[in-house]
Design goal:
Structural class: alpha+beta
Pfam families: SBP_bac_5
Organism: Xanthobacter oligotrophicus
Keywords: Signal
Number of helices: 15
Number of strands: 21
Shape: globular
Signal peptide: 1-26
Distance between the termini: 56 Å
Largest sheet: 6 strands, mixed
Main location: periplasm
Helix content: 25-40%
Oligomer: single chain
Strand content: 15-25%
């Protein structure tokens, strides 16, 4: 293992150097976009639904970012820029937030997009169903629509995080005329979505592909440049690498190939590997302990298991350096909120054994203290290897673990619905504000409701719920930062979740795939500005031709 770790550490430095060179802008200044062509993209795993307003899983967000526009987009510095909303303002007291919508936008079925769609989605979806937005929009008491292009949010307290979550993934707007009065969670348009974005949903062949076609009536005239986008489902990691290398697909995000392949692919002249476009995510990988089950009910047991796990090894050996050890549920990328000097659990197997002994879980005749099941998010081999590493680490302190695999639907139901697990491994995006991406892991209101990517541990703490509520309405930046530091201290003491590593995702794309410098939320953004340089002289025109 020592030799393997040293080899992988060396490989990490080589990959980092290649990625540093590969983050140059994909489109040179002065280049004129060209019309036409089909972009083949990797989507893995296959989404379980095609509506990010109801399920915020990464595969859903990746596909639907080109079907639905956001109210805003985020630039590389995470500054909100106009999309469906042309402008916005907040009142001096922070209790009124007004959005001014773009004129002339149509849903893909030809109906006009209006303020009524935003109001209905906020009231019936974001505040009632959405995994993150129930908390983000909790302080919104009412919504006014004085005209078709104006949305006015009235708040009981200021909510600075709202503007950090208004893109297509954070706050996807649904067409009121297709959802009002229906069973929202089972509405057929969840899987044949009607959006406002640059591409129109055409076909979903489950297990094979999802096809989008150019929106001929898109509000941003002249765009998109591509005729078609085909998301291909390729479960095998080696097959994904081969498809990119051969040019059969031109784009894949969220580290679409085995980490050991990244360096080799980045050196090929027909490919580009980049870490840009993930700034909005701030992703962190963690283990949820089911605090209602067996030995894991005891905080001392959870703390012992934390000290049995070497997060440096997970970063270097399991994730090939595309990660760094996590010390808090608020990643270090959110520097203003991250508590660098907080509670930590250093790797110390001897102390872990002593804590387990003191908790009454001594080794039996066969050396085993108790057994656990570990379930991991089925998003690739890297997550499986993380589970296998935890199994090995826990075995050293006398805890036997079984690693279980299942598809995404079964995993989310097991963890967030049935709660039939001991330890689950998953990742969340913290986003640009911990209210958006971190609070959901600890808020007790979502437990057992089968709402994916929320509180899987089953952790209930009235103090933490109060802190979460306070962070939603505190308008003073310094006081709000202190509230988040108090939150970190409490949850790291109780340890319902164990932060493992902060992830560093990368994108692999064809060298002739052109687009402006990646935006901060590009991984969930659209292909509106993408085009393929096929070497031909034809150029995109300002008019909007009909799709094929």
């Amino acid at each position: 293992m020592g030799h393997l770790a040293r080899w992988k550490a060396g490989a990490v430095l080589a990959v980092a150097a290649v990625l540093a060179a590969g983050t140059a802008g994909a489109q040179q200044a002065g280049e004129t976009p060209k019309r036409g062509g089909t972009l083949s993209a990797i989507i893995q795993p296959e989404p379980v639904i095609l509506t990010a307003a109801l399920n915020t899983a990464a595969p859903t967000g990746i596909v639907t970012g080109s079907i639905f526009d956001g109210l805003v987009d985020y630039d590389a510095n995470l500054k909100p820029v106009p999309a469906l909303a042309e402008s916005w303002e907040t009142s001096k007291d922070g209790l009124t937030f007004t959005l001014h919508l773009r004129d002339g936008v149509k849903w893909h079925d030809g109906k006009p997009f209006t303020s009524a769609d935003v109001k209905w989605t906020l009231e019936e979806v974001w505040k009632k169903i959405h995994p993150r937005n129930q908390a983000i929009f909790a302080k919104v008491t009412s919504v006014d629509t004085p005209d078709d292009r104006t949305v006015v949010l009235h708040l009981s307290q200021p909510s600075v995080a709202i503007l950090s979550s208004l893109n297509s993934n954070g706050a996807q707007v649904l067409p009121k005329h297709l959802y009002e009065g229906t069973d929202i969670l089972n509405n057929p348009y969840n899987n044949k979505p009607v959006g406002t974005g640059p591409f129109v949903f055409k076909e979903w062949s489950r297990g094979n592909h999802i096809v989008l076609e150019r929106n001929p009536d898109y509000w941003d005239k002249g765009k998109p440049y591509l005729d078609r986008v085909v998301f291909r489902v390729i479960p095998d990691a080696a097959a994904r690498s081969a498809a990119l290398e051969k040019g059969e697909v031109q784009w894949g995000v969220l580290s679409p190939v085995p980490l050991k392949d990244a360096e080799r692919l980045a050196k090929l002249p027909n490919l580009r590997v980049s870490t840009e476009g993930y700034e909005w995510l701030s992703p962190w990988l963690f283990a949820d302990f089911n605090v209602d089950r067996g030995p894991l009910k005891d905080v001392k047991v959870r703390q012992a298991l934390a000290q049995a796990i070497d997060r440096n090894a997970i970063s270097k050996v399991v994730w090939f350096g595309f990660a760094k050890p996590a010390t808090s549920p608020i990643p270090s990328t959110l520097a203003a909120f991250h508590d660098a000097g907080g509670i930590s659990y250093d790797y110390d197997p001897k102390k872990a054994e002593a804590l387990l002994d003191a908790a009454g879980y001594k080794r039996g005749p066969d050396g085993t203290r108790f057994t656990l099941d570990i379930d991991y998010i089925p998003y690739g081999d890297d997550f499986k290897r993380t589970a296998e590493y935890l199994k090995q680490a826990l075995k050293r302190v006398g805890v036997e673990a079984s690693v279980r695999s299942q598809d995404t639907a079964a995993f989310t139901r097991r963890v967030y619905g049935d709660r039939d697990f001991d330890i689950s491994i998953t990742w969340f995006a913290a986003f640009s504000d911990p209210q958006v991406g971190v609070n959901r892991a600890y808020w007790s209101g979502s437990i057992g409701k089968n709402i994916p990517w929320t509180n899987g541990s089953g952790y209930r703490n009235e103090k933490v719920d109060a802190l979460i509520s306070a962070t939603q309405g505190e308008g003073d930046p310094e006081k709000r930062i202190q509230l988040f530091k108090d939150l970190q201290k409490t949850v790291l003491t109780d340890l319902p979740t164990l932060p493992l590593v902060e992830l560093k995702f990368f994108t692999v794309e064809a060298a002739n795939l052109k687009h402006p410098k990646a935006s901060g939320d590009q991984v969930y953004g659209s292909f509106r500005d993408f085009w393929i340089d096929d070497g031909k002289a034809s150029e995109a025109k300002a008019d909007t031709p009909k799709s094929n």
